[in-house]
């Protein structure tokens, strides 16, 4: 495992025993008896893990904990004591300790705690690297620094150099083509062609020709041979927008093309082979389209290899104002207007409006404001009346996913409270039979949040107001607890 531990324990016999336990876990242990020696050792070479007794001969372990949190917040701290109370444990955790152990404890209990602590350190490092590597507000044509968008950016970075098919889904106006272009530009095909086709806007009898091309005389009006999107995208990316609108018969031909890279022009007699990366998009539920018989299941599995869900604008929080300001400056420059920003009232309305048309609707609204007005600041009177009215009413809108998650968490906590209350009022109740361990209640609440967010852990963490690393740490802890 290979990690460094400073063990602060005033009892030499216990210190030797705990050192033996830790060495069996692969730790390099430095044992000290006094708080002052611990501080000197920490300053000399900060450890990965500090195991700290609360009662020491020269000072309180809690004072050392607070000092370490200020000077070396990266150190993971486990508090130990022979005089444990709930209040002390709570104080230790609030002060930044990872865990709290009451002596005496055996090697197994210490090992589980240490393993969880080291796993948490690894996850925190990964999350930190992940967050630091992400652009804060602008990325490949996107504007937004919300957690939901950071997840999208990270996914794009991960898949950009792969040839795996990507399926983008999201409401109209969320930026599906921007996402497809970003995948292309971030990858090793960026110097080749990016060809986009909207399957909903091309007539049914022409779309096959648009994709595969045609030979001269293939149909009326085909006066010369023409390359289709498949040939044009050779070496690059073919983006098929609104893929669920494609005719079923053509879907079967597209499936063969995706499987083999081979196609035949309309009216042609020979096969051609190209190297194309496929990116598809829809504003519908693709699996529901399969269930309804409107989209081939085999094609769905070929295209739906890497799914990317673009969040609606009303779930992106401060991104609304971030995008609005960016658009305002851009359009003001184009139109030669003096606009610099929005006043507080206008910001409030924009933030509260539900934006059914998403970013595209926001673009139109900002353009309208700039064209029809001339001022340094946008006020509420410049906003479209419908935006103002609906923005004020949106506070009473149906519960969001965030609200549902919080309601689920509240319900779980209430149920736990009621269970305890029932026991208190029933003298015949047996605590072992009725009380459920707190970690199981917490586990159920967090898993419910993840289910409501369709498995998206960063999104569930944001809605529960905790960090993703906390969920990952707890999941690891649950596994350990269930094995005990």
UniProtKB/TrEMBL annotation:
SUPFAM superfamilies: CheY-like (SSF52172), Homeodomain-like (SSF46689), P-loop containing nucleoside triphosphate hydrolases (SSF52540). PANTHER family: PTS-DEPENDENT DIHYDROXYACETONE KINASE OPERON REGULATORY PROTEIN-RELATED (PTHR32071:SF117), TRANSCRIPTIONAL REGULATORY PROTEIN (PTHR32071). Transmembrane segments: none annotated. InterPro entries: AAA+_ATPase (IPR003593), AAA_lid_NorR (IPR058031), CheY-like_superfamily (IPR011006), Homeodomain-like_sf (IPR009057), HTH_Fis (IPR002197), P-loop_NTPase (IPR027417), Sig_transdc_resp-reg_receiver (IPR001789), Sigma_54_int (IPR002078). It comes from the Bacteria. It comes from Shewanella holmiensis. GO terms for molecular function: ATP binding; sequence-specific DNA binding. This is Sigma-54 dependent transcriptional regulator. Gene3D superfamilies: 1.10.8.60, 3.40.50.2300, Homeodomain-like, P-loop containing nucleotide triphosphate hydrolases. Residues 4-118 form the Response regulatory domain. GO terms for biological process: phosphorelay signal transduction system; regulation of DNA-templated transcription. Residues 142-371 form the Sigma-54 factor interaction domain. The modification 4-aspartylphosphate is found at residue 53. Keywords: ATP-binding, DNA-binding, Nucleotide-binding, Phosphoprotein, Transcription, Transcription regulation, Two-component regulatory system.
């Amino acid at each position: 495992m290979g990690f460094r531990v400073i063990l602060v324990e005033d009892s030499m016999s216990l210190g030797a025993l705990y050192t033996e336990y830790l060495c069996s876990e692969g730790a390099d242990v430095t044992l000290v008896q006094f708080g002052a020696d611990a501080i000197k050792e920490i300053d000399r070479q900060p450890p990965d893990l500090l195991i700290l007794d609360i009662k020491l001969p020269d000072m309180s372990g809690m004072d050392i904990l607070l000092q370490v949190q200020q000077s070396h917040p990266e150190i993971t701290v486990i508090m130990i004591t022979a005089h444990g109370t709930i209040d002390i444990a709570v104080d230790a955790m609030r002060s930044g300790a990872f865990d709290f152990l009451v002596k005496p404890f055996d090697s197994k209990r210490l090992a589980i705690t240490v393993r969880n602590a080291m796993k948490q350190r690894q996850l925190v490092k990964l999350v930190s690297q992940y967050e630091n590597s992400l652009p804060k507000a602008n990325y490949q044509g996107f504007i937004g620094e919300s957690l939901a968008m950071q997840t999208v950016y990270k996914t794009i970075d991960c898949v950009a150099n792969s040839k795996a098919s990507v399926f983008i889904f999201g409401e109209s106006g969320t930026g599906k083509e921007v996402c497809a272009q970003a995948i292309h530009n971030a990858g090793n095909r960026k110097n080749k062609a990016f060809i986009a086709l909207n399957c909903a806007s091309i007539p049914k009898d022409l779309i096959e020709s648009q994709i595969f091309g045609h030979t001269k005389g293939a149909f009326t009006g085909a006066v010369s041979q023409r390359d289709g999107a498949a040939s044009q995208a050779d070496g690059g990316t073919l983006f098929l927008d609104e893929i669920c609108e494609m005719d079923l018969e053509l879907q079967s031909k597209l499936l063969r093309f995706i499987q083999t890279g081979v196609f035949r022009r309309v009216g042609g007699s020979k096969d051609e082979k190209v190297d194309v990366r496929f990116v598809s998009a829809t504003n519908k539920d693709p699996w529901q389209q399969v269930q309804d018989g409107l989209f081939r299941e085999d094609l769905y599995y070929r295209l739906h290899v890497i799914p990317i869900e673009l969040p609606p604008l009303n779930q992106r929080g401060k991104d609304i104002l971030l995008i609005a300001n960016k658009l305002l400056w851009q359009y003001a420059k184009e139109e030669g207007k003096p606009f610099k920003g929005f006043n507080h009232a206008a910001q409030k309305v924009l933030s509260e409006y539900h934006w059914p048309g998403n970013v595209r609707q926001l673009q139109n609204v900002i353009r309208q404001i700039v064209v029809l007005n001339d001022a340094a600041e946008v006020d509420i009177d410049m906003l479209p009346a419908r935006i103002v009215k609906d923005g004020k009413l949106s506070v009473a809108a149906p519960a969001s996913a965030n609200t549902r998650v919080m309601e689920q968490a509240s319900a779980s906590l209430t149920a736990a409270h009621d269970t305890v209350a029932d026991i208190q009022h029933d003298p015949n109740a047996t605590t072992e039979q009725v009380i459920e361990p707190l970690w199981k209640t917490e586990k159920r609440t967090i898993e419910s949040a993840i289910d409501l967010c369709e498995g998206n852990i960063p999104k569930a963490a944001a809605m529960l107001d905790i960090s993703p690393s906390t969920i990952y740490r707890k999941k690891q802890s649950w596994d350990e607890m269930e094995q005990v």
